[in-house]
Amino acid sequence: MNKNRPKYKQIIDAAVIVIAENGYHQAQVSRIAKQAGVADGTIYLYFKNKEDILISLFHEKMGYFVEKIEEEIKGIDTATQKLLVMVEKHFEILSEDRHLAIVTQLELRQSNKELRHRINDVLRGYLNLIDEIMTEGIASGEFRPDLNLRLARQTVFGTIDEIATTWVMNEQKYSLTDLAKPVHELLVGGCGKS
């Protein structure tokens, strides 16, 4: 089935809400169908099972993150500024969609090893974007020439992810977007010249 069709997007958006409100394991396909306004059987025209819905949801939403960040950083000249925009945009997207924040920060942490591998595959585009920014920063002299790219990528992603997860766990009682600049300063300080 064509993933560009409206029902596919309806189902993905419905799955975000149902999984956020009920948890992945309690989210029944029939509830997702009801939320999407489609028949139960329609779900199986687009997805093999609930696991496929979760992976597809993450693929769509992470693709959206990368697309939005790439749009925002076009025309920005410095790697440090691009990194700030990445952090700001990530936090902004999650702040604007409470259900998406819950799903990406909590429900995607699955114990099933195969499912975790599939989720990690989807993350690759986001991690590649971090690599590009870090590599540019090293080349321009904004970041240390001996910066360990793999460690820097893990640190950037891990920091953004942990700050967002803590915000979700604290029931979003404070502004996530207000943390973007301090997080950016911390990351740049760790990557900058010593």
Structure description:
This protein has helices spanning 6-22, 29-36, 40-46, 50-73, 79-96, 98-107, 113-140, 149-169, 180-191. The chain is mainly alpha-helical. It has two domains: 1-47, Orthogonal Bundle (Arc Repressor Mutant, subunit A); 51-191, Tetracycline Repressor, domain 2, CATH 1.10.357. Helix 1 packs across helix 2 and helix 6 crosses helix 8. It starts with 5 loop residues before the first helix and ends with a helix. The model has no long low-confidence stretch (mean pLDDT 91).
Which terms summarize this structure?
194 residues; Arc Repressor Mutant, subunit A; 2 domains; elongated
Instruction: Please state the CA-atom Rg, rounded to the nearest Å.
Output: 18 Å
Mean pLDDT: 91
Query: Which homologous superfamily in CATH is the superfamily of the largest domain?
Result: Tetracycline Repressor, domain 2
Give start-end ranges of low-pLDDT stretches.
Answer: none
* Principal-axes shape call: elongated
Helix run count: 9
Q: Any idea what the CATH architecture of the largest domain is?
A: Orthogonal Bundle
Give helix and strand order, one letter per element, not per position. HHHHHHHHH
Give the percentage of residues in beta strands. Answer: under 5%
